[in-house]
Amino acid sequence: MRDMIAYCGLDCEKCDAYIATVNDDQALRERTAELWAALNGAPIRPEHINCEGCRASGLKTVFCESLCGVRRCALERGVETCGRCPELGSCPAVGAIHSGSPSALENLRG
Q1: Out of 53, 55, 85, 99, which could bridge 12 as a Cys pair, Cβ 3.0 to 4.6 Å?
Q2: Considering its fold, how many domains does the chain have in total?
């Protein structure tokens, strides 16, 4: 499994926060902050858009670092990803992600 697959199976390399961080792209940070603020009804600013990957050491967005229940659960269970969890098929949190992004489930299985 690639290192840049998040605990839930999303591909961090396709995330705008990751792309903006690795390319130091301030314009992408600004667009992403504006979009995420509107989608989440939260005060997200460009300086919040820095992430080096969910499972990687280093920078993470506030959501990924401390608010993501899937990441928190995987860390508590000590699993590499949700794909290694015996409750993958019945987990409502990761199931919600997979219903909107079927490729995330494929990433966990592949």
Answers
A1: 53
A2: 1
38 vs 63, more confident: 38
85 within 8 A of 74, measured Cβ to Cβ:
yes
Residue type at position 46? P
Residue 49 has which token pair? 């858009």
Give the pLDDT confidence of 47-62 residue by residue, as tens digits.
999 999 999 999 999 8
Rounded Cα distance between 94 and 69, Å, is 9
In a domain, 81, yes or no: yes
From residue 74, give the alpha-carbon distance in Å to each of 55, 85, 99, 109. Answer: 10, 8, 19, 16
Cβ neighbourhood burial of 86 (10 Å; 0-12, 13-18, 19+): exposed
Helix/strand/coil percentages in the chain, nearest 5: 60, 0, 40
pTM of this structure: 0.86
Instruction: Give the domain extent around 60.
Output: 12-109
* Neighbouring-strand partners of residue 5: 11
